[in-house]
Amino acid sequence: MAEEYVTLDGSRILELVRPEREGSHNLSLARATINPGKSTYRHRHLKSEEVYYVLAGEGALEIAARIERVQAGDARLIPAGAEHRVTCMSEEPLVILCACSPPYQDEDTELTGSVAV
Question: What is the rounded distance in angstroms from the CA atom of residue 43 to the CA atom of residue 60?
Answer without folding.
Answer: 15
